[in-house]
Amino acid sequence: MLSPIDLLLLAETAARRAGRFLAGVERPADPTRWTAKGHHDFVTDVDREAERLIGEVLLAGADEARLVGEELSPDGNLDGLVWLVDPLDGTTNFLHGYPAWSVSIAAARDGVLQAGIVFDVPRDRLYRASRGGGAWEDTRRLMVSSITEPQHALIGTGFPFKHLDRLDAYQKQFGTIMRSTSGVRRAGSAALDLADVAAGRFDGFWELMLAPWDIAAGILLVREAGGKVTDTSGREIGPEHTAVVAGNPRIHEWLMAVVGA
Q1: In whole angstroms, what is the distance from residue 259 CA to residue 169 CA?
Q2: Average pLDDT across the chain, whole number
Q3: What is the CATH number of the domain that holds 31?
Q4: Is the pTM of this model over 0.90?
């Protein structure tokens, strides 16, 4: 059986392969070449090719595994060894030349996260975590921030652009958090947002609905860096379709008091 470190090394190889492709490919700037997956949501041949490159590496190294992702098997279960793959988290940013997008790959065994990689391709930063092995940015051990007072905190978020029925609730939460903290940021890649929580650049993060492949690697990064990740009810989450509240323990507690269901 492959260990978490074995899985991590496979994920890193796959992420770097996809990253090299994405960094060198011509950006499809013509919107007629974008395929709408849903409201405000696009996929291109670039996403699909990056996904193919990743899948070749992962399945060659662990042929008993299955791949789960938006274009792969979005309704797949998590029994056995599963790779959760987002080959281009932040596609809209990529299409517009805005440098906030990433490759996110995680391994889960029977639903328990084992290893995760978030590769910030534009900045050439690789974040990695393995179960029980800590979280790292290249060679630097990551720890969540030590900020405890909301007025000093910088919070990441994601707008409910695919789920406009949640917009009114989100705006109410946003207003409270904006008035109570030193700032709120929204760059457009949830995988990078969670990596920033693990690295202590964000003190907390919340979003009302994300997919398993968006968050799987980021969840492991935050937890291995000493942080907490739950849904809005306070339940510890795994790779699933869910709301996400993350942060260092104190700021997570405060966020839950604001956005908790």
Answers
A1: 9
A2: 92
A3: 3.30.540.10
A4: yes
